């Protein structure tokens, strides 16, 4: 086991396209770190540079105390788990798991011992003599994990290993991977585009956008204290509702609506007072809006908006609302909504709501949980 340190890591391809910009952070020994972001953000490229499958244009990469920029992948003492499983179809489960040990010249008795141990941990013992074609997707992924485990590496690197599985199996497998990593205590980097996976699996999460580090923190801190508009919108499902607004003393003007902000907001965000008389971006998470007619409104502000769509999901109801304020694109600050239309806000409502499309809803908004961002830098206001 070992820590992994990235110091001003850059990746520039032959056409001078910068894929990774100055990544600098440390993954602690035994930590489960998740790289997350939209497609093309550079998360897999960063992982492949750690693995040695991509060259580093500049910067320094350490695994443990050793600089590995020019060390071959096979000599980095890491094990990689791929999206495609990469199993040999003509070999049995036992032979697939044992393959890296045979290539390393490990004695036969030790190979058998390690393979049997990995099979026991992954509940594959009764499948050891089967071929991959006879296994389910989840079982194949376990075999790929077993092949990584038997090497006893300093670090596991996992590149979207669950993306080929159905939704139910993904939930099951992500819990199994976390349990396995906790029991082995091996430093792990896990790449995913799924923010739910990132939030439920990682000790810490690295959020990337266009090859740049946006924030690195615990899942809870990413949710409650996002560094900027992009992180705020990317973390959380449904995404945070973002609108242009203005502040007049303690009154937040959101389109035709006014929300009087409580003292607690200014106590937790002392810089917010300086925005009085100025525009800003306000963020409202869907779970901080509810039907004022069915919820306890103490501590909540009340606004109104037309309902455009209601999605009843059983335990909760998603209500889409036409808030009459300029909508903010989380990824593109210059985005213009075609035809002057506004994106609808989404509220995660109690299933007791009786609202229907076409109603004008009375909305209870948790003012203390609002998020605020500078419209120029797009960074959070604290």
Automatic annotation (TrEMBL):
GO terms for molecular function: ATP binding. Keywords: ATP-binding, Nucleotide-binding, Transport. SMART domains: AAA (SM00382). Residues 4-235 form the ABC transporter domain. Signal peptide: none annotated. CDD domains: ABC_MalK_N. Belongs to the ABC transporter superfamily. This is ABC transporter ATP-binding protein.
